[in-house]
Write a structure and sequence with these properties.
alpha+beta, 11-stranded antiparallel beta sheet, about 15% strand
């Protein structure tokens, strides 16, 4: 029996002193409280650190960068349009509008830069907290490891000592417990050493990230200072334009009166054409004749109109069944419709009546929006529909009206027209070339309107 016991002990010792990588660490709870406690502490620290490693406001920062780039593109376009538009009596008001748009874009960039720096400040604070936690945990880990090594030296825990400790046990069970304790203690020491190396590497990485964030913030600060200088220069230029316009108040008022008359004439023409469409739509009324079948003509003329408010109300356009669906599709795409032109653009005059923000004596009234673009740009349909009218108006050149059920879109100031009345157009289809006024410094402006029957609508909420 003694021989069997000795052989068993020797086999256990051989297993005990195998290389650590060939054994599974931590296979018991007895005599391993220190190991378990250390693992729990380190696991919590690692989890906490990993949570903090996610950049603060990541998606918000990306969105801010996207908005900043868009604003920079707006400024680039506005600068191009300002360079193309000469400063004379006819175009000075439009130049002022462009300058105002440029100032708004510049202020937006400065505001976004401020938000981006605030995001970076939060990120720097989070990284600093991470480093502080990692430093404290590293110091504690080093302290525990040093104590264990010191204790091991004091106890002279050599291989011979370990074998004597195991062999001096009273029975096999006690020998196994001592052997497991020694194994777990040895594994814990190796794990602590590995943790120290990993934490040191993590601290180095986080410090590098901290330095990069501080550099990024400094770059944003420099950029904001440059944007503020540009803003001051543009504000001075705007004030100069305002002074020049105030000197030419009579000429400007005469020009505005002329534009107002032309706009009223266009508005009246559109209303007359809508009235004609309403009158012509009477043929879409279903014929209620007992015992008779509708004649086999086109589906559009034989289909029964749906009972919608616009078609059933007296004096409104009577919709066919296909036009009812087209109206619903158009209304369902509110806010998703494409811009009515190709290329780069900026809105220089918005919908409705406004007091000019810089000129106290100027009030403007717009039945749609005026979109300035570059030479050669084309107007395009914002939705599928049918061209109902192509006509010419003084001050607005060629005009095209497209019907989308009981909605209509108007495209004015075209030099060339690619469509004719009765044509079916698709979404984004080019319908004409926008007029470029060489007398006004190559000014290229599309006047665009949206109507719902006889009611004018603000196009901006409808366009994406």
């Amino acid at each position: 029996m003694k021989r069997f016991y000795i052989v068993t002990i020797l086999l256990c010792c051989i297993i005990l002193f195998l290389p650590a990588q060939n054994r599974k660490s931590g296979s018991g709870n007895s005599s391993g409280k220190k190991t378990t406690s250390s693992k729990n502490t380190n696991t919590q620290t690692i989890k906490k650190t990993q949570e903090m490693q996610i950049p603060t406001g990541l998606f918000s920062a990306q969105e801010l960068e996207r908005q900043r780039k868009e604003a920079l593109k707006d400024i680039e376009l506005t600068s191009q349009l300002l360079n193309e538009t000469s400063a004379n009596a006819k175009t000075s008001l439009n130049r002022l509008n462009l300058l105002s748009q440029q100032l708004l874009s510049r202020k937006k960039i400065i505001s976004i830069l401020g938000q981006e720096m605030a995001e970076i400040d939060q990120k720097i604070k989070a990284i600093s907290n991470d480093i502080e936690i990692l430093d404290k945990d590293l110091a504690k880990t080093k302290e525990n490891y040093a104590k264990s090594m010191q204790s091991q030296q004091q106890e002279h825990r050599t291989t011979q000592y370990k074998m004597l400790l195991i062999l001096s046990a009273e029975n096999l069970s006690q020998s196994y417990r001592r052997m497991r304790y020694l194994r777990e203690y040895s594994d814990w020491q190796k794990e602590e050493a590995d943790r120290i190396v990993k934490k040191q590497g993590e601290i180095t990485r986080r410090k590098t990230e901290l330095e990069n964030s501080r550099k990024e913030k400094q770059d944003l600060l420099t950029q904001r200072e440059n944007e503020n200088k540009k803003l001051e220069e543009e504000e001075q230029l705007q004030q100069k334009e305002v002074r020049e316009l105030n000197k030419k108040q009579k000429d400007l008022q005469r020009l505005l009166d002329q534009k107002r008359k032309e706009a009223n004439a266009l508005n009246k023409q559109i209303e007359n054409l809508i009235a004609e469409d309403i009158k012509n739509s009477e043929k879409n009324k279903p014929v209620e004749t007992a015992g008779t079948k509708p004649t086999e003509t086109s589906p559009e003329t034989t289909s029964k109109p749906a009972a919608t408010p616009s078609s059933s109300a007296k004096g409104n356009y009577i919709l066919t069944e296909s036009e009812v669906h087209l109206s619903k599709d158009f209304a369902g795409n509110k806010g998703k419709l494409p811009y009515p032109l190709t290329g780069k653009y900026t809105i220089v005059s918005t919908f409705g009546e406004h007091q000019h923000q810089e000129l106290s004596h100027v009030r403007t009234n717009n039945n749609g929006i005026d979109i300035q673009t570059t030479t050669g740009a084309e107007a395009r349909a914002i939705f599928k529909g049918v061209v109902t009218r192509v006509f010419v108006m003084p001050g607005f050149n060629n005009n095209v009206i497209i019907r989308h059920g009981n909605y209509l879109t108007v495209y004015s100031n075209l030099s060339e027209v690619y469509v004719k009345a009765g044509d079916i157009v698709a979404t984004r289809q080019s319908i004409g070339k926008i007029f470029t006024d060489t007398e006004k410094g190559n000014e290229t402006i599309l006047h665009f309107q949206i109507w719902q029957e006889r009611t004018k609508l603000n196009p901006v909420p409808w366009i994406k």
